[in-house]
């Protein structure tokens, strides 16, 4: 679940948002509320939410200024602005500072909320995948793994995109080589099939997420490239000898 902070000075608006979130069946949970921008900034620092839903006009600090200061401090949470028709110019300004979107306060309904938050979920997932790749493969200047330059390009591509759909056809097209030749070359030089290499990369990344985050097994599976929960559990156990939940429990005992 993505952690969500509401920053809104009107109590009825906060209550309305909570009700819509409860009905919307979206992967977001409200972890806090603030009644003005200054309090919102303090809670962003303390709670580290994934997304902030902020009104534009509020006492002490408006929503656009809150977004500016958050970005200035290097905090990466996404922003969705609450706006009225008369405030649309301010909403446009917020988009220029990196807000993911806006919600019209007076006409907000379930459909609009779901559409906007689905977009935010997509952005957060892409951000997580980029951080994941950077964490596991931070050193792109390391010694090349093989003596074949095109194969090394493939390996680098896999390391940067393993959480996406990576197929033999796509990889072969990437280096402009025959797919069968690429498959045989990979196995010969690496001592492992390309499919198993990708699976292993995904499982190693999943281990990190299981150890260092509280994300669910389903969320982690999707983040590292598995769309099907059962398949993720099967492949994880094949490479580690444990299910994801068993691995997480074992790591907590060790730590």
UniProtKB/TrEMBL annotation:
Pfam families (UniProt xref): HTH_18, Response_reg
InterPro entries attached to this UniProt entry: CheY-like_superfamily, Homeodomain-like_sf, HTH_AraC, HTH_AraC-typ_CS, Sig_transdc_resp-reg_receiver, Tscrpt_reg_AraC-type_HTH
Domain of life: Bacteria
Residues found modified as 4-aspartylphosphate: 55
Keyword Protease carried by entry: no
GO terms assigned for molecular function: DNA-binding transcription factor activity; sequence-specific DNA binding
Keywords: Coiled coil, DNA-binding, Phosphoprotein, Transcription, Transcription regulation
Domain Response regulatory residue range list: 3-120
Coiled coil spans: 103-130
HTH araC/xylS-type domain residues: 152-250
GO BP of this protein: phosphorelay signal transduction system
Claim: Transcription regulation is one of the keywords in the record: yes
Protein name: AraC family transcriptional regulator
């Amino acid at each position: 679940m993505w952690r969500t902070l509401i920053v809104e000075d009107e109590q009825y608006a906060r209550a309305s948002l909570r009700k819509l979130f409860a009905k919307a069946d979206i992967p977001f949970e409200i972890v806090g509320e603030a009644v003005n921008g200054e309090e919102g900034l303090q809670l962003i620092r303390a709670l580290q939410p994934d997304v902030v839903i902020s009104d534009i006009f509020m006492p002490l600090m408006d929503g656009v200024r809150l977004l500016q200061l958050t970005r200035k401090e290097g905090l990466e949470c996404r922003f969705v602005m609450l706006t009225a028709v008369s405030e649309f110019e301010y909403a446009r300004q917020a988009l220029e500072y990196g807000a993911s979107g806006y919600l019209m306060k007076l006409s907000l309904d379930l459909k609009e909320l779901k559409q906007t938050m689905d977009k935010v979920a997509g952005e957060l997932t892409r951000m997580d995948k980029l951080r994941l790749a950077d964490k596991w493969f931070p050193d792109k200047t390391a010694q090349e793994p093989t003596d074949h330059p095109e194969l090394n390009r493939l390996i680098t591509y896999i390391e940067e995109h393993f959480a996406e759909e990576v197929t033999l056809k796509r990889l072969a097209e990437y280096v402009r080589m025959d797919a069968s030749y690429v498959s045989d070359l990979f196995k010969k030089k690496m001592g492992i099939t390309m499919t198993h290499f990708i699976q292993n990369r995904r499982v190693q990344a999943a281990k990190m997420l299981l150890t260092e985050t509280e994300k669910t097994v389903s969320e982690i599976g999707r983040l590292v490239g598995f769309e099907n929960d059962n398949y993720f559990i099967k492949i994880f156990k094949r490479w580690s000898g444990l299910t994801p939940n068993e691995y997480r429990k074992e790591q907590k005992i060790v730590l």
